[in-house]
Design brief:
With 68 residues, this protein is α+β, with helices and mostly antiparallel strands. Helix content is 50%, strand content 15%.
Length: 68
């Protein structure tokens, strides 16, 4: 069993495009567009695309609009 590094734990669970879309309450097409436009961080594992829970949470935090 390989040793885990501290940075590995920060990644959290790897989400598929469909799982990320469900958490955002949007369509997978929207998430794919975010990936294509490089507006959200993602991992490319061979032909598979995954988004970490941490990156998804960061994207949501960065998109938040505060009242003036």
């Amino acid at each position: 069993m390989p040793l885990e590094r501290a940075s590995d734990k920060e990644l959290g669970r790897l989400l598929t495009v469909e799982e990320a879309a469900e958490r955002l309450n949007t369509s997978p097409r929207f998430v794919r567009r975010l990936i294509f436009e490089r507006r959200i961080a993602f991992l490319k594992l061979g032909r598979h695309v995954r988004i970490t829970e941490h990156d998804l949470d960061s994207y949501v935090r960065n998109c938040r609009v505060h009242d003036l």
